[in-house]
Amino acid sequence: MAGGRPRGFDVDEALDRAVEVFWRQGYEGTGISDLTRAMGINPPSLYGTFGNKEELFRKVLDRYTDGPARYIREAFEQPTARAVVERLLHGAVDGTTRPDCPPGCLTVQGGLASAPAAEGARDEMATRRRMGETFLRARLEQARIEGELPDDVDPEGLARYFATVHQGIAVQAAGGASREQLHQTVDLAMRVWPSRADA
Amino acid sequence: MAGGRPRGFDVDEALDRAVEVFWRQGYEGTGISDLTRAMGINPPSLYGTFGNKEELFRKVLDRYTDGPARYIREAFEQPTARAVVERLLHGAVDGTTRPDCPPGCLTVQGGLASAPAAEGARDEMATRRRMGETFLRARLEQARIEGELPDDVDPEGLARYFATVHQGIAVQAAGGASREQLHQTVDLAMRVWPSRADA
DNA sequence: GGCGTATTGTAGTGAGCGTTATAGATTCTG
DNA sequence: CAGAATCTATAACGCTCACTACAATACGCC
């Protein structure tokens, strides 16, 4: 086993550049030349290191989950279910309106419709969106068991509502809505949270 | 002025086919060959009749507004602002989950991120999304003046909230959510509607 | 130093993109 | 029927797409 010529670029740094390009232009709107230019490498380096466009995109999604979309995992560390949801939605607002990043959410931008050739990437994005909703639903079920939520609340329906708001925020941000405006929207959305008086 | 050879296809019928293709595959995911195949015509007929891809897409958006998205205009015919919003959101659920059409909303699918070349189409979709929100805001302002809404309500913020839910529904539908599930989501979202007791 | 190995830049692959030149077909006018 | 006008199909345009052969380069190991 020998050494071989060392890689001339930092993999994570290159991934960060790729995240931004896919984020701004979507999967289908991004060409390999856009990526190589932003990453500062040539096509053979890209293919040698990341496989192909779709595999690179999956690695970009992972990097996105651990980076700009870290707020999702962090939200679930909150002590109460209500705090989890508040943190999730307000975090989404901050994450989709960062001045140094494209507006919107990587897993939504261009992940709704696509040519058959991009089906793999589209399905991957849909799966990741569903995962967040599933986690939230489990957290709400736990909250009902623990008494934080009334018994007559439907955790699945409530989780879907908040997921809908979450994704709506991404569309709003992509359309140019401001951070302040969307934080206000989240405050409104939180009014749906069931109070014990409701039941 | 002479007659010339008559057109061998129905323009509106061809537009309907184009609507469905763009709806399913997005603007960038749709090739001219996809369109000509679905419309049953050849490229010169497409270009002679509709201009080019972007002009065709604008005509497709118009046709979509008068067809599958008719519910938006119709919602504003309701007598009260609350009924307008209810009709708007429940109409959106039905429109984005039609069994005979692609799931989701044409003005959202692929309208969030794109290559610079598709900027025109993207801007057009963003503008149309904003229009609905602006109309709704005006209707809510009117409702406050007429006393249907309390004075301390912010029509702009409330309109943005419902627009967020509206667009979130489109993402949910594109991801496979069912009609029943989303109608339930709308019922939850409507709980934000301000009651006079709130103020 | 020489060998094996991994990464590099250059250049190019076939396929598909949006678009159009060209010529034949079909209509109305005179 | 002659001629102008319009739409048609075939075929191709230049360009970009995702992807890769190839040969040169830079390392660890013996």
List the helices and strands and how they pair.
The structure is a homodimer of 199-residue chains.
Chain A: H1 11-25, H2 32-39, H3 43-50, H4 53-66, H5 70-75, H6 81-96, H7 119-146, H8 155-174, H9 179-189
Helix pairs in contact in A: 1-2, 1-4, 4-7, 6-8, 6-9, 7-8, 8-9
Chain A binds a DNA duplex (30 and 30 nucleotides) through residues 1-8, 31-33, 41-45, 47-49, 52-53.
Protein name (chains A, B): Transcriptional regulator, TetR family
DNA-binding region (chains A, B): 31-50
Keywords (chains A, B): DNA-binding, Transcription, Transcription regulation
Write a structural description.
- 2 copies of one chain form a homodimer.
- Chain A is mainly alpha-helical.
- In chain A, 63% of the residues lie in helices and 0% in strands.
- In chain A, 41% of the residues are buried.
- The model of chain A has no long low-confidence stretch (mean pLDDT 96).
- Chain A binds a DNA duplex (30 and 30 nucleotides) through helix 3.
Oligomer kind: homodimer
CATH homologous superfamily title of the largest domain in chain A: Tetracycline Repressor, domain 2
Cα-atom radius of gyration of chain A: 19 Å
The best one-word shape of chain A is elongated
Number of discrete helical segments of chain A? 9
Strand fraction of chain A: under 5%
Q: Please report the first level of CATH classification, the CATH class of the largest domain in chain A.
A: Mainly Alpha
Which protein chains are joined by the largest interface, and how many residues does each one contribute? A-B, 50 and 50 residues
